[in-house]
């Protein structure tokens, strides 16, 4: 089915109060909304259609960083091709895309996922310029709740007691919200589990290989459920800590692991 341009034409949009993170504007599946601080642009999912952004308002659809010479006149484009929206960096500075492995470097491009994507361009004088993007997914009813309703529980992943213990030890630096956390090495995980068992009671005799097997079983189970970034084929070599980090990020994002779980390791000052 084609897009009715009379009903949803490409068009400029006024400045948006409150941003795109908490809302999903109405539009055909695959359409896109792009906003800077001064206004935005809406476009239907038509092949070769593009939304340009940068600091020169007369040359782009969405102006961003208008008074910052570190942002290029046309810093980038979002182009519809092969039934997907692609982000192109045409500027001199990288574009930071949260929840991705790398910066989008000048001259490179990447596919944009459905939903909300905040894009950042570092400017001068410690400024950061935000470009908000939302790609509309399949039409569906968005539930709404009154302020006094019971909070909806997150869709957490089920873990056994042993799995929760091992993964808490692996993710403890993240749960403490340390700066630039990394997964704990497997030998240290085993040492921490044995130390917790000696002070709190419980199962001891942990070896690094046993702890690794417990976490790998969870990672493979979540990968089978469709969680991305949890297989070697997706991550590639050298793998380093990437599989462990992706697993931890999924468990944190779904509230499967919480800071209170650090009590399993004997930490009481939470």
Key attributes of the depicted protein:
5-stranded mixed beta sheet, 270 residues, Tumour Suppressor Smad4, 6 helices, alpha+beta, 23% helix
Structure description:
The protein is of the alpha+beta class and 270 residues long. It has two domains: 11-135, Tumour Suppressor Smad4; 161-265, no CATH class. 23% of the residues lie in helices and 19% in strands. It is built from six helices and ten strands; from the N terminus they run E-E-E-E-E-E-E-E-E-E-H-H-H-H-H-H. The chain has helices spanning 161-170, 172-175, 186-200, 208-224, 232-235, 242-253; strands at residues 11-13, 32-36, 39-43, 50-54, 62-63, 76-81, 84-89, 109-111, 115-122, 128-135. The strands form two sheets. A five-stranded antiparallel sheet has the order 1-3-2-10-9, with no helix packed on it. Strand 6 (76-81) and strand 7 form a beta hairpin. Helix 1 (161-170) crosses helix 3. The longest helix is centred in the last third of the chain and has 17 residues, at 208-224. The radius of gyration is 23 Å and the shape is elongated. 30% of the residues are buried. The mean pLDDT is 88.
